[in-house]
Amino acid sequence: MSIGRFLLLLVLAHPGVSSFAQEDEGGSCTVSLARGDRFEARWTALEAPHLFRFEAADGVRSVPGDQILEMVWPSAAPAAENDTPDLRLQFVNEDRLSGRFEEPGSAGFRLRSPCWGLLNVQLKHLRSVQWLDKTVGESTRQKLLAALAARDSREDRVILTHGDVLPGVVTACTATGLTVRSDLGDLEIGTDRLYGVVFTAAAAELAAPKDLIAVLESVGNDVLTAWLDSRTGNELTGRSVFGENIRLPLPSIRRLSFRNGAVVFLSDLEPESVTEVPFFEVVYPHRRDRSQGDQPLRLRGKTYPKGLGVHSRAILTYVLAGQFSRFQSDIGIDDEVENRGNAAFRVLADGKEIAHQPEVRGGQPPVSLDLDVQGVKKLTLVVDFGKDFHIADHADWAGARLLR
Predict the structure, then answer these.
(1) Model pLDDT, residue 160
(2) Is 350 in the same domain as 211?
(3) Taking the CA atoms of the chain, what radius of gyration do you get in angstroms?
(4) Alpha-carbon distances of 141 from 111, 209, 314, 318, rounded to whole Å
(5) What is the pLDDT of residue 22?
(6) pLDDT for 292
(7) Distance from C-alpha of 310 to C-alpha of 149, rounded to nearest angstrom
(8) Cα 251 to the chain's mean position, in Å?
(9) Do 282 and 215 sit in the same domain of this protein?
(10) What total of structural domains would you count in the chain?
(11) 165 is a domain residue
(12) For residue 11, is it within any domain?
């Protein structure tokens, strides 16, 4: 069976059981609002439509979901050693799940998530699978990133641990490996040789939701996009962006944010145009919500769940259509390259420069931008080569967002 569209069916076998625990059972959190206000509170109820009730130090607050930037819970304990994931799944809408292969399913396989229990993964909407227990060279890792960035291929691409890339159509994914239909016939490739696979032969494009929708991030770095219906005790219910009913244990959720509210993150938008110019030959594609090293975005010790990780020289243009009032972002060189890296940052509004940082170096504090974009039709972000050419220019537009 050829893998085309992938359906994620979440069935939580034990919704109340998690390898992680928060001291307050998921109730106490830091709430950040779109306009900059922040307060500590206990989340006590979810009321229709999209109204969140909190118990704060100054009394009860009711806040519409479209005015909430994020809700962040205290850090939880790390996963137990036997719960360490060996697979990372990425979906076409940028959702991701990590876990261990449990057993084959009727139309896919069952994945055990350290946070969300046993999940049924059916074959639809999957973008890639990466085997996490492999040590590979930098060139092999870059081939996987390049395959993820490419959108025009008519074949799936299997990246082997030694760096070869096998084009074809993946027809089965099991605990022991992949079956790939190629020009050489049907090939069985064991997991010992697999680093990753990128599905593009019949990848489904998922229509972006237009109404308010939640993005749930687990303490194990899983990400799931869903419409929330209710909260009962420490369990959230709703419907995933794939159309499936879900039940999630609140103690396993680290962060809850929203799309299509008063704040829109650039990493949730598709750029109108992308220009990425290598200094020599290797092109380093921009990444959404990840650094160039495929890590969470970090500037001077602060982790940003949202943003863009780019490499010089990169030019990204977004259509605003006059719908936003401000653009905000922290900019800097990601912590992963320490004190290396030297790049120039520019922001253009309808072709006119509205911000310019000519020299941003690794190890420096981030620069915070808060720019007026009222009436702007197109916003362009530029990261250019600095004094050290392109070396270690892992540049972050950290938390890059638009305010209505």
Answers:
(1) 92
(2) no
(3) 21
(4) 24, 32, 20, 28
(5) 40
(6) 87
(7) 12
(8) 20
(9) no
(10) 2
(11) no
(12) yes
Contact at 8 Å (CB) between 19 and 116?
no
* Residues of the domain holding 355: 267-403
User: 257 and 332: one domain?
Assistant: no
| Residues 214 and 332 placed together within one structural domain of the fold | no
Closest to 228 measured CA to CA, from 246, 242, 210, 254: 246
| 73 & 88 share domain | yes
- Using alpha carbons, select from 256, 259, 225, 260 the residue that is nearest to residue 240: 225
- pTM listed for this prediction: 0.72
State the Cα–Cα distance between residues 71 and 243, nearest whole angstrom: 24
Residues 68 and 5 in one domain: yes
141-166 pLDDT, tens per residue?
Answer: 888 877 776 666 678 889 999 888 89
- On whether residue 186 sits in a domain, the answer given is no
Distances (CA, A) of 119 to 11, 105, 246: 5, 10, 10
- CA gap 173, 374 in Å, rounded: 49
Residue 141 within any structural domain of the chain: no
**Structure tokens belonging to residue 399:** 């938390």
Give pLDDT, residue 80.
54
Alpha carbon distance 400, 84 (integer Å): 31
CA–CA gap between residue 136 and residue 134 (Å, rounded): 6
Q: Give the pair of three-digit tokens for residue 29.
A: 């959190």
- In this structure, are 111 and 85 located in the same domain? yes
- 383, with CB counted inside 10 A (0-12, 13-18, 19+), is buried
Whether residue 69 sits in one domain with residue 11: yes
Grouped pLDDT means (10 residues each) for the chain, 404 residues:
37 36 60 88 86 92 91 68 79 87 77 80 80 84 75 81 89 86 91 89 68 89 89 87 82 88 88 85 83 88 90 92 94 90 93 92 91 96 84 89 91
Residue in this structure with the two tokens 């809408």, named with its chain if needed: 93
